[in-house]
Description:
Radius of gyration of chain A: 26 Å
Low-confidence stretches of chain A: 343-381
Structural class of chain B: alpha+beta
Number of strands of chain B: 3
Mean pLDDT of chain B: 76
Oligomer: heterodimer
Structural class of chain A: alpha+beta
Strand order of the largest sheet of chain B: 1-2
Largest sheet of chain B: 2 strands, antiparallel
Distance between the termini of chain B: 51 Å
Strand content of chain B: 5-15%
Largest interface: A-B, 38 and 24 residues
Number of helices of chain B: 4
Shape of chain B: globular
Amino acid sequence: YKTFDGDLKWDHTDVTYRILNYSPDMDSKLIDDAFARAFKVWSDVTPLTFTRLFQGNADIMISFGKADHGDPYPFDGKDGLLAHAYPPGEGIQGDAHFDDDEHWTLGKGAVVKTYFGNAEGAVCQFPFTFEGKSYTSCTTEGRTDNLPWCATTADYDKDKKYGFCPSELLFTFDGNADGAPCVFPFTFLGDKYDSCTTEGRNDGYRWCATTNNFDTDKKYGFCPNRDTAVTGGNSEGDPCHFPFVFQGKEYHSCTSEGRTDGKLWCATTDNYDKDQKWGFCPDQGYSLFLVAAHEFGHALGLDHSNIREALMFPMYSYVEDFSLHEDDIEGIQFLYGRKTGPDPTPPQPNTPTTTPYPDESDATEEPEPTDPSVVTTPSTVDPTKDPCKMLKFDTITVIQGHLHFFKDGQFWKVSNKTDGGRTGPFSISQSWPALPAVIDSAFEDVQTTKIYFFSGRRFWVYTGSSVLGPHSIEKLGLPPSVQKVEGALYRGKSKVLLFSGENFWRFNLKTQMIDKGYPKYTEASFGGVPNDAHDVFQQKGNIYFCRDLFYWRLNSGRQVDHTGNVKYDLLKCP
Amino acid sequence: WSRPVKSVLVTSPGNIVKNVADVELAQSYLKRFGYMETEQRSGFQSMVSTAKALKRMQRQMGLEETGELDKPTLNAMKRPRCGVPDVAN
């Protein structure tokens, strides 16, 4: 390994980072996760911690850019230079830049996260079959609205699982239109545009107006890349147009005809001979996780290594099951020392516990009703399900002071004791037989120890092992428009906040009704949290809003004082 | 047999930039990543010879240190990589 002259390093271990912008190649949540995992590569072997900031100046400022992106070291189009980073220090020092002329993936082709549909945001499964035909990219087949979609399993005809693919017809990102989709045609500087354009910009990013007249309304957003978006060439980001004519011949897929380097390309209009518009077809792309882990090594003070297998070797090569090389570990520990504090919790015994919930082992803390009649046969849970691999939980809540993570009929507990060990999986049906497999939210009335569970438009109330329900949530006074209660926040003094969509209601446990003056906008009362959080709970005086694998923590002053990763901070994954 | 009969070579606009000569590519690579840095010798500044720079690069990349622009070295120069120089200046 090598360090920079003078062993440049950070003089503190709680390093901060901030993501300034996103690449249109991948969904922002996937990019967030790739960067979080890339930092974890280094925090796993050193005392370093990495906290993400959403404003202000962070130690490591991360951005995507093309060619000349504002520092003295321009990028060079597709391939070649992938990214660079500066050694620790003030200003641009410590920052990491990624070349957005690259096709950013996780190393094995486009990662297309879906929206809406019924797949809860799962990624596309390519190839998939639809009406007996195989598709290797998103398609508008079967639709009249021209929205590209894909199946999230290999066989749509059998599983019927699908979602919509990123497209400018579905949403835009950044800009000033809050993600509104493009409106075509739109007028810009008097000209009409019926597709995304880079006109008016010098950074090559494609944009559109979200009303039909940008000149008057000034509303715009950036277009997400479709999965067939080309890179390089002279129409970066535009999708391939199939069929297209080249040298008088029709092509229905990418071709290397006309090139000596064998690279696949396509035209982005129906006639290359006439329009000369083209670009390189999407390939495996470069793993943003691997490249980021390398660049963050620079940002922490490591220079290039001459060990070919090391992460800090200057050339990119894709690795399926990544693990940090000894050379990298020696280098980073030379700068920051070994990881201090407890070793990662030893792997939990994966023989399922056989005692149903409530768990006797807590009996020492407070007496709990246990119903001897409850059957204690081995649970039917799947011990191989690893909560650390899940992208999202049905609900996260606090019961008897312990965090509970519910997912597909199972739940895990993280003790609130200092060692914070995780136990499970437990079977929901064994502990609360009346409940369905999917729980949207739950809370415990600490005064009566009643536990309320919500699923869809129904709720159940458990007192020990006896249950009331299911009842309709309308019984609580929630309007028919509420399809599900996504979060339940017990506020003490028999008050509970119930969250759904962008609103929340205050439920009075005494009157068993919603208080007057509700609903209210979540954003208005809890500034800075996402309005599509799907888990809300309170622990140790802080309120947590969770979306997928991230959480926003509000302190007692209702200020977002920390954002983190559910997996590593709450679920205690190694 | 293996060549398409009527393969037509098309120079697309994007292509022109990429078809630099190998030597030119090597020179810019060695300079960009710090292998061609100047050497101080008794007050006299001189550029590192290309052969010496090539040897440095071959050592860094775990290639045979021939000091010549052989095929493995040229292939290595065309591989995607990090933009931070290999030799700090």
